[in-house]
Amino acid sequence: MPDHEHDTYRRLIELLDTTGTPYRLIDHEPEGATEAVSALRGHPASHAAKCIVLRVKVDRRTTRHVLAVVPGDRRVDLDAVRTLFAARYVGFSDAATAERLARAVPGTVLPFSFDPDLELVADPAVVASPELYFNAARLDRSLVMSGADYAALAGPRVEPVAGPSVLNPRTSSWT
């Protein structure tokens, strides 16, 4: 496990333990795709936190980075994020920037921000979830906690940033 993964995992567990926040760890085969890891953990993808690092260009000179957290069966609504930040452009961050700001590799990004340059926005459905599952900065270990505890601890800006479901209703398969 690379150092930043170990440090981010350790920081998360220390935060949960020092605040007395209830959580459960789940060990599983290494997997980072939301749908696949949800199946390994045995829950619907809608109970997972999908965490996406976005680049938000407010104007020609100002770029912000946002960690959008949506239910695992939904997509990030880039138009909603653009409106929320009154931005000219919103797109996915490049992998190197996302990894540096999230302090985790793709597929293990936490729904927490430990970097002041990474703004945290969570969809209301995430914080309303009785059980919220996410990879714990590792591909082989996940964490489950309540959405309410997550909101209290992570302090995200709660805004509707989830788009429609990614489940194709005609085929019942993931798109």
SSE layout and pairings?
Layout: H1 3-19, E1 24-27, H2 34-41, E2 49-57, E3 63-71, E4 74-76, H3 78-84, E5 89-92, H4 95-102, E6 118-122, H5 124-127, E7 132-135, E8 141-145, H6 147-154, E9 157-158, E10 162-165, E11 167-168, E12 173-174
Parallel strand pairs: 3-6, 6-9
Antiparallel strand pairs: 1-8, 2-3, 2-5, 4-10, 7-8, 11-12
Q: What does it look like?
A:
30% of the residues lie in helices and 30% in strands. The radius of gyration is 15 Å and the shape is globular. It is α+β, with helices and mostly antiparallel strands and 175 residues long. The longest helix is centred in the first third of the chain and has 17 residues, at 3-19. It has helices spanning 3-19, 34-41, 78-84, 95-102, 124-127, 147-154; strands at 24-27, 49-57, 63-71, 74-76, 89-92, 118-122, 132-135, 141-145, 157-158, 162-165, 167-168, 173-174. It starts with a helix and ends with a strand. It has a single domain, classed as Alpha-Beta Complex (YbaK protein). It contains 6 helices and 12 strands. The strands form 4 sheets. Strands 5-2-3-6-9 form a 5-stranded mixed sheet. Strands 1-8-7 form a 3-stranded antiparallel sheet. This is YbaK/EbsC family protein. InterPro entries: YbaK/aa-tRNA-synt-asso_dom_sf, YbaK/aa-tRNA-synth-assoc-dom.
Multimeric organization: single chain
- Which structural category fits the helices and strands? alpha+beta
Summarize model confidence as the mean pLDDT. 92
Named CATH architecture: Alpha-Beta Complex
Could you tell me the CATH topology label.
Answer: YbaK protein
**In which order are the strands of the major sheet placed?**
5-2-3-6-9
* Rg value: 15 Å
User: So how many helices?
Assistant: 6
Strand content: 25-35%
Order of helices and strands: HEHEEEHEHEHEEHEEEE
